[in-house]
Amino acid sequence: MVQYVVRRLLLSLVTAWLVATIVFSLVHLVPGNPALVILGVQASPADVHRLDQELHLNLPVWHQYGDWLGQLLMGHLGTSLIYNEPVIHLIFQSLPRTIELSLVAMILSVIIGVPVGLLAGFHHGGLWDRLSLGIATLSVVLPGFVIALVFIYLFTFRWHWMEIAGIAHTGISPWINPLVYLVPGLTLAIGLAGPLMRVLRVEVMEAAGSDYIRTVRMMGISERRILWKWVFKNALIPGLTFLGTQLALLMGGVVIIEEIFAIPGMGSLIVTAIFNKDYPVVQGGILAMAFMVIIVNFLVDTVYALIDPRISYH
């Protein structure tokens, strides 16, 4: 088990290094002088020269890469060109919002997807099965921003239950007031819950039709106990793996949802930095989001190995 975890950790570190290398290359993929692109064609040669020195663009690429990687290892991501603040401070201000919203979305997707998926697979062809297929189809067909706009119309303009846009600017934590992230979290959760239902449905159908389940039924054990004690355990592992692999898609959806609901998270920070050509913030923001995905995938793989004894550690 220890060897397995060490191998996964080393693989995660290599992945993180590759991601960091790609992110470093973003500035150098810009056609022409990156400093001139950032400042605009109206910038004076003195300003361009100053920014070249500030971003170390006047040094050889290998020298820039070594300096940048060394600063990254020490936790320094540079200074924002727009806010004139350390990028790491801006990330620490925005990252909790994104994590909170992602956790709310994951929790809601599990609350919606797991029961419906289990019942759909266990009662194949019944009401729950048709319901799960309908929700899964809608989650694939409807983009996240369309669902968000529908929710804004219903909750704000039609039912007048709450003010949606900009509500997260109040600084209220969703753990203190769950309604703060309920609607944006539900918007993201629908996109996750549908595919999760399909995965669980298939796994439950396979488990419920297996020989050992038929043997258990012959012993006179109730269907409810069979579902939760045997079928659910076998379907849980693929479901957990699926949620881990879907994190990258969740992060991509967070960017759009944060913009729509005016949530000052990482998505909003990165989008604003892109429009303002604030490359240090763009680099730092993409790195932070990518590292989150790597960390969660590592944790999912570790938990997966703990839950499923069939996984080889060698």
Provide an overview of this structure.
The protein contains 13 helices and no strands. It has 314 residues and is an all-alpha fold. The protein has two domains: 72 residues, no CATH class; 220 residues, MetI-like (MetI-like fold, Orthogonal Bundle), CATH 1.10.3720.10.
| Portion in beta strands | under 5%
In total, how many domains does the architecture comprise? 2
Structural class: mainly alpha
Mind telling me the C-alpha Rg? Answer: 24 Å
Q: Quick one: how many beta strands?
A: 0
CATH topology of the largest domain: MetI-like fold
Shape: elongated
Tally of DSSP helical segments: 13
- Calculate the terminal CA-CA distance, rounded to whole Å: 8 Å
Q: Flag low-confidence runs.
A: none
Largest sheet: none
**Element-by-element helix/strand order:** HHHHHHHHHHHHH
What number is the mean pLDDT? 78
Observed structural traits:
mainly alpha; 314 residues; 13 helices; 0% strand; MetI-like fold
